[in-house]
């Protein structure tokens, strides 16, 4: 089954370059030149992943991502001409799955897109995991990729879902940042601690009663993170 990627950028030459490489890799491509056009496309078409430039007219990439995350879970890669940690951290906080700075190597973009598509869709189709995982007042539902806290549904991005699955399948296990990155991102760890920290922070905001003093996702100083075991529950 071919996957469909939406390319959102107001620079036609960038869209054409990516289209050339992605179609060669067997992907179907849709295009949008600004955020408003992209939003209409997302609502009308079946899209598996979106690549969104930050700087665009009418509706920029950050505004589009905020709007998209109110209704959709599809993975998103942000593009930016500014290679600054603040842009990357903001995008990840808003629910982006990856961030690529311009200028980029199109082969790297293709590789990242394929890696995200594999872990988002193939993992969900083939992984043999229980339909639900339950610890404390949290229930992780693998059918809908959501977490329920005290019966209230909390939507997750694909990365948040992968992180919680890893944690809740092995409560009490200490994961190093490298182990989390290579297990969840299906990629070689390249010392990108900010990416992991941002996604952990977003998860804590969703599942913890007091995110600044987390109970479930605990930091093991100097090593990584672990999830609370059932016998540690109050």
From TrEMBL:
Molecular function GO terms recorded: phosphorelay response regulator activity; transcription cis-regulatory region binding
Major subcellular location class: cytoplasm
InterPro entries per the UniProt record, alphabetical: CheY-like_superfamily, OmpR/PhoB-type_DNA-bd, Sig_transdc_resp-reg_receiver, WalR-like, WH-like_DNA-bd_sf
Transmembrane portions of the chain: none
DNA-binding is among the record's keywords: yes
PROSITE patterns listed in its UniProt record: OMPR_PHOB (PS51755), RESPONSE_REGULATORY (PS50110)
GO CC, alphabetical: cytosol; protein-DNA complex
DNA-binding interval(s): 130-229
Residue span, OmpR/PhoB-type domain: 130-229
Keywords: DNA-binding, Phosphoprotein, Transcription, Transcription regulation, Two-component regulatory system
Domain Response regulatory residue range list: 4-117
GO biological process, one term: regulation of DNA-templated transcription
Gene3D superfamilies per the UniProt record, alphabetical: 3.40.50.2300, 6.10.250.690, Winged helix-like DNA-binding domain superfamily/Winged helix DNA-binding domain
Signal sequence coordinates: none
Residues annotated with 4-aspartylphosphate modification: 53
Compartment annotation: Cytoplasm
Protein name per the record: DNA-binding response OmpR family regulator
